[in-house]
Specification:
about 350 residues, alpha/beta, Rossmann fold, five-stranded parallel β-sheet, 7 strands, globular
């Protein structure tokens, strides 16, 4: 379906950030929304989509967060546009609805949630002139952050899913039900791989001038130049408010669990190395596909170990110091993962 066959279109070139969970998309979103030209709904858009039962996997109508063009019927598209439009706010929290509807320009809308990594074909029907920013992060840092977030139980998105007896955190890719009984690192690798594979596949299907790529490393080390480039891509003014925010030290994003630190991912190095070789094809694809847009390397912490055989985590007593080097007792570290999240795999 094309835009003319759907409801009245009231947006102008929305900018949609697509990324795997814990890639830094909240930091990018919270930085860019300081632009006086951009409107957002203030946070992630889970309920914009999932207030419709047909788009909520808990009701068994759809089986995952994957949405394609055929899911974008007229009624669904109209409702999603309406909800987004009704909740738009600017950087000072002023509702778009307070503007004079006869003279106000179509809003420049900024949107992000990691679930959108699985929805690009659908979003392309809802917002046919959208621009996409693909944010990627060193996979080992990214995997470690997802692992820590799963352990925290602060990012649970679903409970009682069909095919999954326990809790589920973050996005829900197709085929998730086959992971029951596997290790946490395998679940997290599955999520990371699915998010990036779908992003790469789906962006290849749209014109190259409608998407760009940026690394988390670029964002935090050269914020001003990075945001300026993204604004130029999206045709958004790099205004004074945004410039001043970028020139200051960026605050931690609202979903940060612990302060950033070089090498923090090594707390989970043993289990991350279990899955890295399986992720190599996706890592190589990212490097190729982002090369026209950024020179930042996909891996910033060294190459994947070729041919390395990494031992499975050892059997441990619950009160022993954890094998990962965290200095925590095993029951409070890697031994606590599956008891709290319903994922099995590590022997306790």
């Amino acid at each position: 379906m094309n835009a003319e066959s759907k409801s009245e279109y009231r947006f102008y070139r929305p900018t949609i950030i697509v990324a795997a969970p814990r890639s830094g998309s909240t930091l990018l979103f919270e930085t860019m929304r300081h632009s006086r030209s951009l409107w957002t709904i203030g946070d992630e858009s889970h309920m914009v989509f999932e207030h419709l039962k047909k788009l909520d996997p808990r009701y068994g109508i759809c089986s995952s967060n994957r949405l394609v063009a055929s899911d974008a019927d007229d009624e669904t598209v109209e409702r999603i546009r309406e909800v987004f439009f009704e909740h738009l706010r600017d950087s000072s929290d002023r509702p778009y609805g307070e503007l004079d509807s006869d003279t106000a320009p179509a809003p420049r809308f900024l949107e992000k949630t990691p679930k959108n990594s699985l929805r690009i074909p659908f979003l392309n029907e809802v917002f046919p002139d959208a621009r996409y920013i693909y944010l990627f992060r060193d996979p080992r840092e990214n995997l470690s952050s997802i692992i820590e977030a799963w352990r925290s139980s602060d990012f649970v998105t679903y409970s009682g899913l069909p095919g999954w007896p326990g809790q589920w955190s973050f996005l829900l890719p197709p085929g998730f039900e086959h992971l029951w009984g596997t290790s946490l690192e395998e679940v997290v690798a599955f999520q990371w791989r699915a998010a990036n594979q779908f992003i790469l596949d789906d962006l290849r299907a749209i014109p190259a001038d409608r998407w760009t790529a940026v690394s988390y490393a670029e964002l935090i080390t050269d914020t001003t130049a990075t945001i300026r480039r993204l604004c130029e891509f999206a045709d958004i003014p790099f205004d004074e408010d945004l410039r001043e925010h970028c020139n200051r030290q960026l605050p931690l994003s609202r979903y940060t669990k612990t302060d950033p630190k070089n090498g923090k991912w090594r707390r989970n190095e043993i289990i991350i190395e279990q899955v890295m070789s399986d992720l190599r094809p996706v890592i190589e694809r990212i490097a190729v596909d982002v090369s026209p847009y950024t020179s930042s390397p996909v891996l910033t912490t060294g190459p994947i170990r070729d041919g390395a055989v990494v031992a499975r985590p050892p059997r441990m007593g619950r009160n022993e110091t954890c094998y990962c080097g965290s200095q925590l007792r095993y029951k409070h570290c890697h031994g606590n993962v599956h008891a709290t999240n319903g994922v099995t795999g590590l022997t306790q």
